[in-house]
Design brief:
0% strand, 12 helices
Length: 325
């Protein structure tokens, strides 16, 4: 594929992602407007808190993009941080295109458009996503584990068993096999991808644990952002950041695992509504409104992070290629 066609494919991907994001924004805002009519006394906008929530969400996304870039560099890709951050944040918008593969395909296409390895991008993205989900479940267990135990008659065996399982998931051998299985599922298990997966062996387990700890902290930042968001739209008691971290992480994981819905739409909002009503003093109607607002918050954060990443990189059409080295 020529450079012109690579750039055209990248532009088409970004255009499709933005179109679907606008549709999601319109739908979510309409849903909130309808809900707001029945809960008009619940909302009270405070711009300072809302800006703080937006800032946390945007910075957190840029930080996660930097972590993916670090992982790609560990696996042998000579990618600069501004370029890697722009690639990850831009491909992240592909979650809203129907079909779960577009986020991964977009990242690989972005890297190929700069003359780099799509195989490294794909493998590192698969590993990264596995650790995101594992750390998200871990964050939910650490913050909501007592409620999970209560749901099973007060037994703590389930949270303990899940914690042990999560620790085993981050073992390098398990992570390699999970990556290989996902690559095969996506029909991307060619020789180039297999070579990159095998390249993980000499790195040991340090990178997976480093990623796990860093992403666990990222979930807490999201929990703080959700706390700021609720404080920015309601004067009702909102619970603590620890609880909201678990609520956000658990609902994100539930939405991601819902394969048939782009971006986990409806599933994530439903899970967050349920968890908010269980874990916080918010009534069901207000919890549903917060879940919809949380989706709007994350989308605006994603768009802001993408804009900043493009500015840091110097534009979409620029970037270092192997010939520039």
């Amino acid at each position: 594929m020529t450079d012109r066609w690579k750039r055209f494919a990248l532009a088409a991907f970004l255009l499709a992602a933005l179109v679907f994001i606008l549709l999601v924004l319109q739908g979510q805002w309409s849903a909130f407007a309808e809900l707001g009519g029945s809960t008009s006394g619940t909302w009270s906008a405070r711009p300072g808190w809302l800006l703080a929530a937006l800032g946390l969400g945007t910075v957190n996304l840029l930080g996660m993009a930097a972590l993916w870039t670090w992982l790609a560099r560990r696996l042998g890709e000579d990618v600069r941080y501004p370029e890697g951050v722009a690639a990850w944040v831009g491909s992240n918008l592909g979650r809203y295109i129907p079909g779960k593969v577009w986020q991964l395909a977009g990242l690989a296409a972005f890297m190929r458009s700069t003359g780099r390895s799509g195989s490294v991008a794909l493998v590192s993205a698969l590993v990264f996503q596995i650790v995101v989900l594992v750390s998200g479940i871990a964050a939910a267990l650490l913050t909501l584990g007592n409620r999970i135990g209560d749901a099973f008659g007060g037994s703590i065996l389930l949270p303990i068993g899940l914690a042990v399982g999560l620790a085993l998931t981050l073992h390098p051998t398990v992570l390699r096999r999970a990556t290989a299985a996902l690559a095969k599922l996506l029909r991307e298990d060619g020789p180039a991808v297999s070579s990159v997966i095998e390249r993980e062996r000499p790195t040991g387990g340090a990178y997976s644990w480093t990623l796990g700890v860093a992403l666990l902290l990222a979930w807490w930042v999201y929990g703080a952002g959700l706390w700021f968001l609720i404080a920015g739209v309601s004067e009702a008691p909102v619970g603590d950041i620890r609880t909201l971290t678990g609520v956000f992480a658990a609902s994100y994981v539930a939405g991601y695992l819902a394969i048939v819905t782009p971006g986990g739409l409806i599933v994530r909002e439903g899970a967050m509504t349920l968890l908010l009503t269980i874990a916080t003093p918010l009534p069901a109607a207000a919890a549903m409104g917060i879940a919809v607002l949380a989706r709007l918050w994350t989308i605006v954060s994603e768009l802001a992070a993408f804009g900043i990443a493009v500015l840091l990189r110097g534009g979409l059409g620029k970037g270092k290629t192997p010939d520039d080295a």
